[in-house]
């Protein structure tokens, strides 16, 4: 596998170049010295011969001697054979042969030194690589043991560092997944506990009322009808609870896909009001919409209508009879806003931070409330890149502020 980054290899090559450069410098000095030694020996021996010739032949022309020495004329190779010298394999000057042998030895020592230096550098490089690989293997073993607390972040840029950084990212993701899985298990446990509690109460009531009807065949019709109405109400509550839980579960599992389209916020609000019309009439509550401007929002109208409907149901549930709920629609360059304000009993200060929590039932919640409508509304709004917050004044009013960005 060829890794993109070759920084470590480059470093190794750069370090290897250093002994090569040193070898080349020493080699050049060495060959220069060798050449000068040869020249000096040759010149000394020729000077001795010239001196001898001048003594034997004092009238000889010096220019003629220099001309002979620089002449390209070849002399028979056999001329030195009478002296026992083979000019093809030996130097006429024995001292040069000795120098050459010495130079060969030194040169080979330099070559061996260069080779050893590169080998040592390579072994050191491999040792460092193996050390880092062992660290990575150790980290992987710890990760396999589900130990995600290790820190293997590395700021260098060589291949193994890139691998360690990628492994570090994987470790962080696995750690987050493990933590999320743990949270999900706790949430599932809490949800199952809440669901069990929510279902247990109405089912127990239904069971008791059915036992009363069965154990008292002579029960008067009014009492029997009252029991039947209560059973119907509890069944309706169970059906509503199961439906809300299924919707939240789908959001938790990310299986719901919004079909976003441009839609007028006013149309969403009108549809939501239509859904709670009968509920509002029972308490003679009027719902007034202000600022009915043509403000468009890109969203899934069906789900956003459900979110607004759930908030309106909460407002109606806690509003006084013969009161008014007002809805304002506004927009600016940053967000679109829906403000829903009731004139009810308000929310207790202790309950205010928890009203969007699943299955939370505040101090003033009705006995039929399942405590999941506002949690579902918040989930839907936030899935559409929105936010919802609440402000309440005890005994006066509650205001829900919804913003879509």
From TrEMBL:
PROSITE patterns: HIS_KIN. One of its GO terms (biological process) is cellular response to phosphate starvation. This is histidine kinase. Its main location: membrane. It catalyses: ATP + protein L-histidine = ADP + protein N-phospho-L-histidine. It is found in: Membrane. The chain crosses the membrane at residues 12-33, 99-123. GO terms for cellular component: plasma membrane. Keywords: Kinase, Membrane, Phosphoprotein, Transferase, Transmembrane, Transmembrane helix, Two-component regulatory system. The keyword Phosphoprotein applies. Its EC number is 2.7.13.3.
């Amino acid at each position: 596998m060829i890794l993109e980054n070759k920084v470590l290899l480059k470093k190794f090559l750069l370090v290897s170049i250093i002994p090569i450069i040193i070898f080349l410098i020493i080699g050049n000095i060495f060959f220069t010295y060798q050449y000068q030694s040869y020249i000096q020996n040759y010149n000394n021996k020729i000077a001795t011969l010239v001196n001898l010739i001048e003594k034997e032949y004092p009238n000889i022309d010096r220019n003629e001697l220099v001309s002979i020495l620089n002449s390209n004329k070849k002399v028979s190779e056999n001329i030195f054979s009478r002296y026992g010298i083979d000019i093809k394999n030996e130097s006429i000057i024995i001292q040069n042969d000795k120098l050459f042998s010495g130079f060969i030895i030194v040169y080979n020592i330099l070559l061996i030194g260069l080779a050893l230096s590169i080998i040592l550098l390579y072994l050191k490089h491999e040792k460092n690589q193996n050390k880092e690989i062992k660290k990575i293997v150790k980290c992987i073993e710890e990760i396999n043991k589900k130990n995600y607390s290790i820190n293997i972040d590395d700021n260098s840029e060589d291949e193994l560092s890139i691998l360690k950084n990628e492994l570090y990212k994987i470790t962080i993701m696995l750690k987050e997944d493990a933590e999320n899985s743990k949270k999900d298990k706790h949430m599932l446990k809490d949800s199952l506990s809440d669901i069990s509690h929510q279902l247990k109460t109405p089912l127990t009531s239904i069971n008791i009322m059915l036992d009363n009807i069965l154990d008292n065949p002579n029960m008067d019709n009014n009492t029997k009808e009252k029991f039947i109405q209560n059973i119907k109400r509890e069944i309706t509550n169970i059906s509503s609870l199961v439906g809300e839980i299924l919707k939240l579960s789908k959001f938790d599992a990310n299986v719901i896909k919004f079909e976003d389209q441009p839609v007028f916020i006013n149309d969403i609000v009108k549809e939501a009001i239509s859904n709670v019309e009968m509920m509002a009439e029972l308490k003679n509550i009027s719902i007034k919409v202000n600022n009915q401007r043509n403000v468009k929002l890109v969203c899934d109208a069906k789900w956003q209508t459900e979110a607004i409907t759930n908030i309106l149901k909460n407002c109606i549930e806690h509003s006084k009879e013969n009161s008014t709920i007002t809805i304002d629609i506004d927009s600016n360059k940053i967000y679109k806003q829906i403000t829903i304000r009731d004139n009810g009993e308000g929310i207790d200060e202790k309950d205010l931070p928890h009203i969007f929590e699943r299955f939370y039932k505040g101090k003033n919640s009705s006995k039929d409330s399942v405590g999941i409508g506002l949690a579902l509304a918040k989930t839907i709004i936030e899935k559409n890149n929105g936010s919802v917050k609440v402000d309440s004044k005890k005994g006066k009013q509650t205001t829900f502020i919804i913003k879509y960005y």
